[in-house]
Amino acid sequence: MLNGKAVVCDISTTPVKPRLTFKSTILSSRGQNMRQIIGESNSLLVTPGSDSHLVTSPSSSPLLPAEILALILRWDRCEEIEAWREMVNTMVSCSLVSKAWYEAARAVLFQDIRLYNLESLRLLLRTVRERFGGHCPAHALHLSYPWLYLGPREHVMEFRALASEFVACCSKLRHIEGHNGTLNFSSETSLPEYPHLKKLTVSSQYLHLLAPLLHRACNLKSFEVRWGCSGDKLLEHCSPPPSFNLSTLSISQTELSASECKWLFALSFQSIESLEVDDVDVSLCYLAEIIGGFVKNLYIRRADRDFIGSRGIKIISLSGFTSLRRFCVDEWDPRWALVGDNLPSSLETFAIPFCMKVVTNVVNLLRSNWQPSLQSLDVYGIPLDVHESPLGAYESPYYELRPLDFLQSLQLMDRWLRDELQRVCVARGIRSNWLTIQNDTGN
Description:
Blueprint: H1 22-27, H2 33-38, E1 44-46, E2 54-56, H3 66-73, H4 81-94, H5 99-111, E3 112-115, H6 118-131, E4 140-144, H7 153-168, E5 175-179, E6 199-203, H8 211-216, E7 222-226, H9 233-237, E8 248-252, H10 258-265, E9 274-278, H11 283-291, E10 297-301, H12 305-308, H13 313-318, E11 326-329, H14 336-342, E12 349-353, H15 356-367, E13 376-380, H16 384-387, H17 406-428, E14 431-434
Parallel strand pairs: 3-4, 4-5, 5-6, 6-7, 7-8, 8-9, 9-10, 10-11, 11-12, 12-13, 13-14
Antiparallel strand pairs: 1-2
């Protein structure tokens, strides 16, 4: 009871849902207990039985400064959808506390926007037009229409048109993800400059429809394309080439012609230091010709038999990466040694998966003084059982096994492979890093 008018709940009696972080528990607590925590309990109170109208109570305690409130509600960008949903629910709860909290929570909500259905996009765009004057303060935007191939075509076209219009309202964007071909811009689309845009990720995207946005992203650092749909239309209607300053490029299951590679990266080839490719076929040859002299980190996923090929075209393309310092690969064909022979002799770090055929080839190469400048070897995917195996000493993988189960036999083989590789690294003075997951490689 405060002045006989209002009641403030004690936070100790407020039930807390399990498995919530301290921050989300505090921020998502509804009602007057929030004001009690931050010192607003004497400024904005709810009178019992008054339909939750805000009333002012005289007090010498000032409201929490907006800067401090912004720090309390600050929420880093959520990579996982569940974390993002938790953030949305928490900010919605915080917006019910007071006008000041409403403004601060709304700012956080608008920093990371994810749109998956047409109706939500319609409502948000109308809100931006009517309440923000057509200017949205979003920092991160994630667009995806899951009914691209199953829903009515008119809905798909409307989602793409509204998505393009919404992007045009967000000049403060720092990160854009457009999946299922949701980013479609024409030469007539009026787009602002995006000086803060650093990362762009697209999938199932026609690249020539993305070109107008690329022209406006002068400070773009990271560009990722998955299942891209290319074509010479990119060159017919879009010129000059974009002038962004890329440092990281990732291309997955996308075929780019030589002219497209040149158009996309002609003005940023000297700044691209990291390249990740996955099932790009001969596009790797074109990339090597344009940016190969400046790439320092190369990561090749799923390098199968087709990568090696009968004519060895893509193997030869590896020699075009003359400034390579770090090379990472997922898996190789038994003819892996052919690839090793075509790598430039400038490697400092080599990352490989832990499997028999790869480790065996690497051991043989290192014994032949391959890559004399090599300083570090990262081996990822090490089974945890290898570190803690209770098996005794042995000398070769063909050691006469006693009645052991299949799992123990695999552990025995894995330990032998690891020991062989470790001996070669010690003899060469190479630092070996044994990693349990692939993400530990830094790619």
